Amino acid sequence: MEDGLGAGFLLLGLGICLVFSAFFSSSETAFFSLTQSTIANLKEAKDLRSRRVVRLLDRPKDLLITILTGNALVNVAAAVIGAVLSLRISEAIGFPAVLSLAIEILLITGIILIIGEITPKIMALKHAQTWALWTALPIDVIRRLLFPVTCLLNLLSSGVSRALRVERHRLTISEDEIKTLVEVSGERGALEEDEKEMIQGIFEISETTVREIMVPRVDIVCLPVTSTVRDVIKLVKEKGHSRIPIYNENLDNIAGLIHVKDLLPYLENDDREVEIANILRKAYFVPEGKKIDDLLRQFQRDKSHLAIVVDEYGGTAGLVTLEDVLEEIVGEIQDEYDRE
User: Fold this and answer.
1) In whole angstroms, how far apart are CA 246 and each of 104, 258, 271, 276?
2) In terms of pTM, does the model score above 0.90?
3) Does domain 210-330 have CATH number 3.10.580.10?
4) Does residue 219 surpass a pLDDT of 80?
């Protein structure tokens, strides 16, 4: 009777250990598989459970040591209980103790792997956020209870890391990994096609040169420096451009730019025969081999929207606008003057 009762308690203890093993294993997977976007959403949430998850993740090393320590303790306890059970069974049936112990080791290892490790991890991976929210409170309580042990283990692991010269580093994601993630997200419908193209365009601007997107020399809409305000207004009405390059004698000698809004005072005074040489703005020049991500930063820095593109000999090769650069990211931009 007593032996049966003792065996019952041992089986109950083994079951409890397996439940805790599954709990720790699933918690580890749930917490450490949360994406950055999910964590960001949890930070914005106001409920207590979300704040507790974020607080635990703010110290990931302490969290991991707590979970691993708890899991190790219950797995060791399960192994010890299994060993005691196997010895009692072997004594009761007259089975060799060594062979019984070997069978127990294999059996307990398999049970722990399936029930305490693999199955709960798979389930937690599918419902990471939900499981992290539900387990945050018990994990936090266990962290406080095991604090002296985890603190010691933290110090020991830090010492070993320093001795082995293991560098601490932040997790980084390569450009290729992000591109793959964008491609997969597009295929699964998580990203719209235009969103996918926009993200891809952001990466491509660092590889695209001004030469590839510029308006070529033969298509530049421009005027000679001897032109009048009337000439500019006429051209603006015809072409719809707000900025016109002005050249002196030929296109290789750009004198500056004229902006439509600079003509407004002359329109008010009906003074349209004034030559534009005195109201020119400074022209910005860029080499045709310049990368357009650098050009975008230059546009931001100089507060400009148009640059003259020059070739290796200093001649005018074309022009490029801020709109040309943005179209490489967001796609074609149609305004009221563009023809379909």
Assistant:
1) 91, 7, 20, 9
2) no
3) yes
4) yes
